[in-house]
Amino acid sequence: MGYLLLVLIVIGLVLLAVSFFKEDSIKQLEDQIEGTSVTVMQELYKVKKKIRVLEEELMINERDR
Fold this sequence. Notes:
The protein is mostly helical.
């Protein structure tokens, strides 16, 4: 009985140690989401900038008529 308890404690300690060294999958997911979010924001900025330029060109063309 004593050996069984000792084995279970050792196994528990080993698993605890392994869990600290294991790469955190949630951290990886957060990093991917953050990267994607930054990319989307950059693309949105570019699209808004292009729309602004097109609107200005339309205003200039309307004034010329």
